[in-house]
Amino acid sequence: MTTLLLASASPARLATLRSAGIEPLVAVSSVDEPAVLARAAEEAAAAGLGTLPAAEQVLLLARAKARDVVASAPAAAQADLVLGCDSMLELDGGAGVEVVGRPVDAADAVARWRSMRGRSGRLHTGHWLVRGAHQVGATSTTLVHFADLSDAEIDAYVATGEPLRVAGAFTVDGLGGPFVTGIEGDHHGVVGLSLPLLRDLLARVGLTVPDLWDATVRA
């Protein structure tokens, strides 16, 4: 069996892998995400490239997390592969495109949901896979349609604490599920880890999903 190390603290990503028969090691990176994005924005501006798209931002952060864990986590020595992931929600509106990650507090989560309700957004999840000297990455993008929640529903949802722990302030596989009216694309990407995209990345480094299945699946 090939051992995968997940460079993420996300319970949803871990559960997604386990549901697919993959039991990964887990290590959390110490990457300063705002600093990584600020540096990338400065470099893009200096090169005259303008604002870095959200799909590129999540890929950049996924790469930084995977590389950080490879370089610093003791568990990396026990793994054949390291996977980093990062997610952001992109909303279109009259004031332009708004890119949001995890809410900073409950008030921020409430404001986010009051802006999101009745609208649609693109959930981008960057994936970066490291196998020795080989590194590959890609971003999964899924269109998410949100219900037109009442203020009372928003307040109750935020009070559970769930929206404070996830990018975009919502889940599709938890308490937030009833508030998502539709998804166009891979729902795994909304959870935070696209299994079809992982399959593609594994193929690019010479592996298959069955190579990662644990002993219970193989039995």
Write a brief caption for the model.
By secondary structure, this protein is an alpha/beta fold. It is built from eight helices and seven strands. Strand 3 (81-93) and strand 4 form a beta hairpin.
Structure description:
The protein is α/β, with parallel strands linked by helices. The protein has one domain (4-218): Maf protein (Alpha-Beta Complex), CATH 3.90.950.10. It is built from eight helices and seven strands. Strands 1, 2, 3, 4, 5, 6 and 7 form a seven-stranded mixed beta sheet that branches.
List keywords for this structure.
219 residues, alpha/beta, seven-stranded mixed sheet
Mass-distribution shape: globular
Proportion of strand residues: 15-25%
The SSE order reads: EHEHHEEHEEHEHHH
Overall average pLDDT: 91
Total beta strands: 7
Distance between the termini: 12 Å
Helical percentage: 25-40%
Query: How many structural units, i.e. domains?
Result: 1
Q: Helix- and strand-based class?
A: alpha/beta
CATH class: Alpha Beta
CATH topology: Maf protein
Layout of helices and strands, plus pairs?
Layout: E1 4-7, H1 11-19, E2 25-26, H2 33-46, H3 54-72, E3 81-93, E4 96-100, H4 106-116, E5 120-131, E6 134-146, H5 151-159, E7 180-184, H6 187-191, H7 195-204, H8 215-218
Parallel strand pairs: 1-2, 1-3
Antiparallel strand pairs: 3-4, 3-5, 5-6, 6-7
Helix pairs in contact: 2-3, 4-5
